[in-house]
TrEMBL record:
This is VOC domain-containing protein. It comes from the Bacteria. Residues 3-127 form the VOC domain. InterPro entries: Glyas_Bleomycin-R_OHBP_Dase, Glyoxy/Ble-like_N, VOC_core. PROSITE patterns: VOC. It comes from Pigmentiphaga kullae.
């Protein structure tokens, strides 16, 4: 059996968050989605559980950080091309997200990112397979 990963993130407005990520092209698994949580499908065996703050609090033993004030995590996602990186960031900005910094071109890797409406940091990047194989 392949491992699965569920990244759990607290959100202040679940319908707004679902609409935001829906505009970026993500879908939700209805089996694990209700008024307290939405299971966003990122890829095969990769999910983000978007939990209302009160529901999230039931799983956490420490205070919940405000992602608009401090960095709690950087969620990094690969894209198939530089254009796909730019397209996702463009969609995020149009849907109400913010870009904390300009795109970065490291030659072998091109990256950019956005903060979602709750301030969670999403880094999207493309790595040239030929360059990666060369080491």
């Amino acid at each position: 059996m392949h491992k699965q990963i569920f990244v759990n993130l607290p959100v202040s407005d679940l319908p707004r968050t679902q609409a935001f990520f829906g505009q970026l092209g993500f879908t939700f698994n209805a089996q694990f989605t209700n008024e307290k949580a939405a299971c966003m499908v990122i890829g095969e065996n990769i999910y983000a559980m978007l939990l209302t703050t009160d529901f999230f609090r039931g799983f956490a033993s420490k205070p919940i950080s405000d992602a608009r004030q401090s960095t709690e995590v950087l969620v990094a996602l690969t894209c198939d091309s530089r254009e796909a990186v730019d397209d996702m960031v463009r969609k995020a900005l149009a849907a109400g997200g913010t870009a904390p910094r300009p795109a970065q071109d490291h030659g072998f890797m091109y990256s950019h990112g956005f903060d979602d409406p709750d301030g969670h940091a999403w880094e999207v990047f493309y790595m040239d397979p030929a360059t990666v194989e060369q080491g």
